[in-house]
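Weekly modeling sync, notes
Attendees: S.R. (lead), two postdocs, one rotation student

Agenda item 3: backlog of single-chain predictions. S.R. asked that every request posted to the team notebook include the full sequence so nobody has to chase files. The rotation student volunteered to paste the first one in as an example of the format we agreed on. Action items at the bottom.

Example entry:
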Amino acid sequence: MTTPLSKRSLLKMGGWAALAATAALVGCSKTEPESTAAATSEAAPAATAPEPLNIAFAYVGPVGDAGWTYAHNEGRLAVEKEFGDKVKTSIVEKVPEGPEAERVIRDLVGQGAKLVFGTTFGYMEPMLKVAADHPDVKFEHATGYKTAANMRTYDARTYEGAYMAGVIAGSMTKTNTLGVVGSIPIPEVIRNINSFTLGAQSVNPKIKTKVVWVNAWFDPPKETEGAQSLLNQGADVLFQNTDSAAVLQTAEKAGKYAFGWDSNMSHFGPKAHLASAVINWGPYYIKATKDALEGTWSTGGVWWGVKEGAIDLVAMSDAVPAEVKTKVETIKAGLKDGSFSIWKGPIVGTDGKEVLAAGAVADDKFLGGVNFYVKGVEGSVPSSK
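Predicted structure, as returned to the notebook:
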């Protein structure tokens, strides 16, 4: 079958033959025909650019919380910077843990998301339900422990930042009493309180830690109230596992010390601020996106810390003595190369019973199930139910 293109070529060739015959009859010289290359080809259709990977993030707090959600959003922005028009990202802020989370996540999938990040522990069950109904979508759940064929977990070793902050706190306190504003009593948070205390006790064995629970991740008024309560009980250095800068701001007003958490909070209380234990989600979010784009994504669990560049202690105050800064940097280097272990026995609980034998190093299974206070933390662990 002759294509339209070859028909046009044949017509041109016929025309050239007629011209040549006429020229011969009148004694004219032969004229070379022009190249047919341009005439015999049509412009190739433009290559269609692949659709960008649609990535959605569900946040438990507002992006402006200055802590947990702010840090996650910085990671999202790192993804956009790294991949440009290969990705399209979207967010939903202040998504409550529980049934509402399931509705929001289903809606994100309905809008075309092919990679979904759920950024708090309480999204675990809702994400599992949605993942079961959408096997073609990849789900990433922060701080959880349940996985599926298309859902994996990821976390940051925040207890490493807590320990380093504790070293500073134990060196700076004058009352030997530290205070922690806790959010939800789950292993992640209890582990951070204990690690903060262990760090402080490593330089000051007299340390006692008081804890006030606010039962919320982000509630500035409650965080403020909890911080003030701890100050009233004699704590002169405050720590937190909550998402706003309220604890640091309360310490600033009272002329006491405190730390930033999840991001650099130094500008919220420059006189009170000793350092900030920060999370950098960018490296993991870039890895997860790259996996999805290249078809190498697989289920499982990821737990990154100082070694992988996910955890750091930054913006140490000028008030912190040089020798203490040096100690922190030495610990940081040890965490990075694996030569230093935070949870190394002997460690005992508040009841005096040994929870980790002398010389033993806690594995991730042990760390993931911490539901007790170490010796030096006052009170008892409340139920998370």
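Discussion: group reviewed the output briefly. Residues 214 and 222 are 6 Å apart (CA to CA).
Action items: rotation student to repeat for the remaining queue; S.R. to check formatting next week.
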